[in-house]
Amino acid sequence: MAEQHPLDHSKVASIREWVTGLFKTAPQSDKERIDRLLQDLSSAHWRMDKVRAELEFTSRNLAFTRRERPLDQTEEKK
């Protein structure tokens, strides 16, 4: 079962929808800034997913390594 992450896909979609609504009603002078914020949100979400995938991969590899090569008694005593 996957853990609940603080910034999951549904929350990002909800934030993006809210910011898009702001963009539609904002004066032209604010639209460029809001557009940059939307781009930042997308970029941060992509990076978060990439890091999460790398951590999950590393965790699986570590679990596999521990099963295949358990510490021997001399290493455990150190």
Task: Tell me what the structure shows.
- There is one protein chain.
- By secondary structure, the protein is mostly helical.
- It has a domain at 32-65.
- Helices cover 81% and strands 0% of the residues.
- It has helices spanning 9-25, 28-68, 73-77.
- Helix 1 packs antiparallel against helix 2 (28-68).
- It is rod-shaped, with a radius of gyration of 21 Å.
- The model has no long low-confidence stretch (mean pLDDT 78).
Taken as a percent bin, the fraction of beta residues is: under 5%
General shape: rod-shaped
User: Uncertain segments of ≥5 residues (pLDDT<50)?
Assistant: none
Specify the number of helices.
Answer: 3
The percentage helix is: over 70%
Helix-strand blueprint:
Blueprint: H1 9-25, H2 28-68, H3 73-77
Helix pairs in contact: 1-2
